[in-house]
Amino acid sequence: xxxxxxxxxxIDLTEKRLQTHxxxxxxxxxxxxxxxxxxxxxxxxxxxxxxxxxxMFGKMFNMGSxxxxxxxxxxxxxGPNKWKFFxxxxxxxxxxxxxGLREGTIEDCLDLAAKVFIxx
Length: 120
Hints:
The chain is built from three helices and six strands; from the N terminus they run H-E-E-H-E-E-E-E-H. With 120 residues, it is α+β, with helices and mostly antiparallel strands.
């Protein structure tokens, strides 16, 4: 099967949908400051940005909080409204398929990644 690369329009629409859903359900809750998407070829990497009040660097440099970036998932473009889902496994530092979701919309993928890593 040939690799499908998202068009600039697909990327723009996906980012808008992702941010709308993230702001409605996660940003400002659970310590989440931002949900970020980075695109590489036919993949999108989902990351969560949190600020922690504590931490060695925050205390050492009187920063008050430290920004942490956490990997959530890698999504493979299948079509404008369909992404193949791979969750990040911190135990072996790689993305793996996940039995709960093989593919879905950007919202489905974000919800599952958040359920695994953010909402506990």
